[in-house]
Amino acid sequence: MAKILFFSINDVCASGLRILSACLKQKAHIPYIAFIQRNGYPANSVKEYSSVAKNVEEGDWIGIDDCGREFAYAKGLGIKESEKELIGSLINEIEPDLIGFTVTVATKKIIIDLTKFIKNNFDIPVIWGGPEPTINISDCLQYCDFVCMGESEKAIINIADRLDNNLNINDLKNKELYPLITNLDELPFKDILFDNKFLIENDTIIRGFKELSYNKYFYHISTSRGCLNKCSYCCEQFYQNLYKKQKFLRRRSPQNVIQELKAAKKIYDFKIVHFEDEIFSVDYEWLKEFKELYKKEIDLPVNCNIFITKDIIHNLDILKEIGLKYTCLALQSGSERINKNIFNRPFNKDLFLEIANKLKKSGIKFYVDIITYNPFETEEDLKDTLNILLQIPKYFTICINKLYVSKGTKLYNMINNNKDQKVLADRIFRYYSYLFWLSAYSSLLVKVLQKFRIFKKFPGVIKILLISGSLSKKIVRKVKTI
């Protein structure tokens, strides 16, 4: 039996690693998962972390908070030398045959540091998987021994079997791409048992670690793999090209999803089911079958993403019946030019606003996702985004992201090929970001601010209004919206 130790950085959900752990258990291997710190800001927005989140660095995913301040998310407090000693002691205790990491852009820097620590102190092979090694294989192989490209379930079982039979794994091809798993029902449910689970945080090791989410009420689950869109900035677009001759979009049966939820309910008393996949809201017939089972067997409130298609208005009724309470409306940009020519996203302004209004009437809360600080954006594009936000029924929440583009994606190449592109001044992006936030509370207030040029010249004045916190919100909530 091979012993595999996975490390999860700032993510106790770790759905991908938990599925790998379940696959290894199914084949009689012994997996371990060590969580290095709980999820960071904004999911765990404690004062201690908030101060660290302000220290944004190159490579961080950066958001704009409701006070107009930049922060780094999907990022923890940083690993202290004393915590590395705990990591080393755990490795000595387990004596794993292989150590694995799931690597994203946000966690890459800290995983490089941890990998160097492991390579300097232990003679144990290290494997990286996830989107970053899949997209940037050559760069990642500078630090680790092996990478898993794409889906990793078949690869990790192959490696574990070879280790178990004392076979050399050094001849494994790093660029070997296993076929996609076509029948997702064949996969075991993710490993949510607390055996062989650890949390290393605040100079301590917690054994038998039980948490499954940054929110104690959530159970995270996916009903599918893949995405309908081919957004130019997203790793999904890269994955679709990687598997272009295979069926990329796959879905579990409603029965299989219900079986997982029933099994999880016997172990954890969660209150909300959080569907993580992009396309949960797609396919009316699937949702209809799922609803009958879900209401009978589970019947808990639901969070999910809304995928904007021509059928979504029809599907919203059944999503409401299933128990949808909170969702994400991914606008990204209100500019048709940006969506079509830069982001490669389908866009229908009227449909988007129709969905927002129906969600409001149905009592379903939502947040709007925005991507800005885009080098191809003009002020007209920013105005188009603001114009749509002003038409959304109040009140709602906004998630504003500064554009980050991974190497290997279509948009990364577009930007590199247009280095002479004239980019708007930072203050213009800040001005509109602040207005985006205020638009969630009062369209009238935004329109008043737009009439005075001084605010565009000195956007920090608007930031002061945002930073005043609850006071500013009380003021704008008193302003009649239009």
Describe the structure in your own words:
The protein has 482 residues and is of the alpha/beta class. The chain has 20 helices and 17 strands. It has helices at 15-26, 47-53, 81-94, 108-121, 131-135, 137-140, 153-164, 235-242, 254-265, 284-297, 312-322, 336-342, 349-362, 379-391, 410-416, 426-439, 443-450, 453-457, 460-467, 470-478, and strands at residues 3-9, 30-36, 61-64, 70-73, 98-102, 126-129, 146-147, 197-201, 204-207, 218-221, 224-225, 250-251, 272-275, 302-306, 324-332, 365-372, 397-402. Strands 4-3-17-16-15-14-13-10 form an eight-stranded mixed sheet. Strands 7-6-5-1-2-8-9 form a seven-stranded mixed sheet, sandwiched between helices. 39% of the residues are buried.
Q: What descriptors fit this protein?
A:
single chain, 482 residues, alpha/beta, Rossmann fold, TIM Barrel, 2 domains, 8-stranded mixed beta sheet, 7-stranded mixed beta sheet
Mean pLDDT: 90
**Oligomeric category:** single chain
CATH architecture term of the largest domain: Alpha-Beta Barrel
Count of discrete domains: 2
Given as residue ranges, the uncertain stretches (5+ residues, pLDDT < 50) are 475-482
Largest sheet: 8 strands, mixed
